[in-house]
Structure formats: structure tokens, C-alpha cells
Specification:
This protein is of the alpha/beta class. It has helices spanning about 10-15, 25-35, 45-55, 70-80, 115, and strands at about 10, 40-45, 60-65, 85-90, 110. GO terms for molecular function: nicotinate-nucleotide diphosphorylase (carboxylating) activity.
């Protein structure tokens, strides 16, 4: 049985290998035909790409390195183009920049900042359960 928890990702680097890397609908439709149980996650690097991607109806659209203003604009038009698509912001999202995006209308933030943060000093104490 296929693992439905793992989505199919279609990012710019993947699209370079397609016959027509601007044919968002064709690519997404082909993915849906071959793996209908999977969520399709696409990434857009520009507002123009985001609009083209939304017209193709992905399950999730990641906006990579969008400014707060660009993110707001896409969030406002997305419901009319792809009402069931979840928008996500990625690229440059960290504790310092997050506050700039909180009012843009997008609620899913993807960050790699924890991977680059200083390690936390966590202490764990294990003890046997008390006898009953």
C-alpha cells in the first residue's frame, strides 16, 4: 500500500527536467494520474509562477523567498484561483522575519532555522516507576 503521508514535491529544480517547465497544469495532472492518493506540493519562486501554479490547482503551494507584500497579494487572489490550495511560506523565515509575515493571510510557515540554531542544553532524568 502506498504511503499517503509523503507528498509529491514539484520544485523549480524538478521542473527543469520537464518538456515544458511552464506547463504547471500538465505536470500536476500527470502526477495526479500516477499517484492520486498523494498530495501535490509545488514551489513558486515568483508571483507570476505562483499565479500559474494556483491555476493548476495544487494541494499546497510554497512561496519561496516572497516579500511580505508579495505574500499578501498571492494570499488575496489564491481563494479565487485555487480555493482548496494551502499556501505556505518558505525561505528566509526565522524568528526575526516571522513578525513581518504574520498579517499576510498565510498561516503555514516552513523554516530550516532550527537546523542552524545553537544547540539547546537539555537534561533528561529517567527513573523507574514506583512499585505498585
Amino acid at each position: 500500500m502506498p504511503d499517503v503521508r509523503k507528498p509529491i514535491l514539484l520544485f523549480a529544480n524538478h521542473r527543469h527536467f520537464l518538456h515544458d517547465n511552464q506547463d504547471w497544469s500538465g505536470a500536476i495532472n500527470q502526477l495526479r494520474r500516477h499517484a492520486p492518493e498523494k498530495k501535490i506540493v509545488v514551489e513558486a519562486d515568483t508571483p507570476k509562477e505562483a499565479i500559474a501554479a494556483l491555476r493548476a490547482q495544487p494541494d499546497v503551494l510554497q512561496l519561496d523567498k516572497f516579500s511580505p507584500q508579495q505574500a499578501t497579494e498571492i494570499a488575496q487572489i489564491a481563494p479565487s484561483l485555487a480555493p482548496h490550495c494551502t499556501l505556505a511560506l518558505t525561505g528566509g523565515i526565522n524568528l526575526t522575519t516571522l513578525k513581518n509575515y504574520l498579517d499576510c493571510g498565510i498561516r503555514l510557515f516552513i523554516t530550516s532555522a532550527p537546523y542552524y540554531a545553537a544547540p539547546a542544553d537539555i537534561k533528561v532524568s529517567l527513573q523507574p516507576a514506583a512499585s505498585i
